[in-house]
Amino acid sequence: MNIHEYQAKELLRKYGVATPRGQVAADAAEAAAITESFGGQSVVKAQIHAGGRGKGGGVKFAKTPAEAAELFGRMMGMNLVTKQTGPEGRVVRTVFVSDPVDIARELYFSFLVDRATGRVTALASTEGGVEIEEVAAATPEKIVKVAVDPAIGLAEHHARELAFALGLSGDTFRKGVVFFRNLYKLFVEKDCSMLEINPLVVTKQGDVTALDAKIAFDDNALFRHPEVQAFRDLNEEAAAEIDASKFGLNFIKLDGSIGCMVNGAGLAMATMDIIQYHGSSPANFLDVGGGASEEAVKNAFRIILQDPGVKAVLVNIFGGIMRCDIVANGVVKAAREIGVQVPVVVRLEGTNVEEGKRILSESGLRIQVGADLDDAARKVVAAIA
Ligand code: GDP
Ligand code: MN
């Protein structure tokens, strides 16, 4: 789960991580009042779950309270297009007013979970304010990595190594060390999967502060953080993904033409690979998981069919805990209720497979059955060729 910048900054403050003062404004008058309280100037920032706002027109400097009010009016409700939103953009529903900072240097700092080492890893770079992917591609030597031993945590010497790599010195160095250690504490205690401060700023006064903050949380740990769950903004999530999550299903929207209903993430990957191998690409995949009910399967199939990108559907189920007859009944019910306008190919294997195939063939629906995964993928791709 992702959260907004202003929410991330609330968390930073709770952990003693320096970040400029700021407040969400409900209306233009409040944007002006907040700006007034900061001494008459502010940075007005659109809150969407995507970066690149600065270049897209979602971060603007206000020289007076009146200008902040005007910027609020322009930003609120606008469709903000950035490099990360895709061409369709995102509607701005929240506007944050921030106390301006005099920037001396823009740096980059993040924690992420490095799957190769299985460790939380700090990334730091003197090249802040630009996308780290670009730095990694052009000047990878400018990124310093420190893997953290989970038993020890971010040790003092690690924090010093990072501060040193960023060229901090004197009092600023000491502030950097405190910043990194508090940030690590937040990362671990709140079960984050990614925490990025870009830019991490050294101010002209020699302070270290988080000018921007992006946090992603491990969904599997959300149950133990109700205060983080409260940050969830459904407006920022794809409607179909929310719909699916109500039934305990995982739906991922992609940009190809074949809808995929599968059970298990590994099978989803294999299914998408084989679709690509046969010359098409997935429009989405929906993982019904292990023990889904007929009702959940029915909704899964409905959600796939409602995706406008779907030109054909491949159902690929390996019944272990999941029974093939439950899948077949769910598919048939969904097909009857909402009608199916696109070709459907089913590959079933495992528990109660004969019963599942019988239900499909007796349903009267035009559903093709694949002999195996390869055959099913071939058929579904051929169906839309
Ligand atoms: P992003 O474009 O979505 O990553 O939004 P950021 O919050 O990172 O802001 C983009 C850029 O705006 C930063 O890299 C800064 O250069 C600039 N910026 C944001 N806030 C301030 C501020 O308080 N003072 C100054 N001088 N520049 C700022
Ligand atoms: Mn940023």
Automatic annotation (TrEMBL):
Recite the UniProt cofactor note for this protein: Binds 1 Mg(2+) ion per subunit.
Chain sites annotated for binding substrate = N263, G320, I321, M322
Q: Which residues form the signal peptide?
A: none
Q: Quaternary arrangement and interactors, per the entry? A: Heterotetramer of two alpha and two beta subunits.
Described purpose of this protein according to its UniProt entry: Succinyl-CoA synthetase functions in the citric acid cycle (TCA), coupling the hydrolysis of succinyl-CoA to the synthesis of either ATP or GTP and thus represents the only step of substrate-level phosphorylation in the TCA. The beta subunit provides nucleotide specificity of the enzyme and binds the substrate succinate, while the binding sites for coenzyme A and phosphate are found in the alpha subunit.
NCBIfam families per record: PRK00696.1, sucCoAbeta
Q: What is this protein called?
A: Succinate--CoA ligase [ADP-forming] subunit beta
Q: Which gene encodes it?
A: sucC
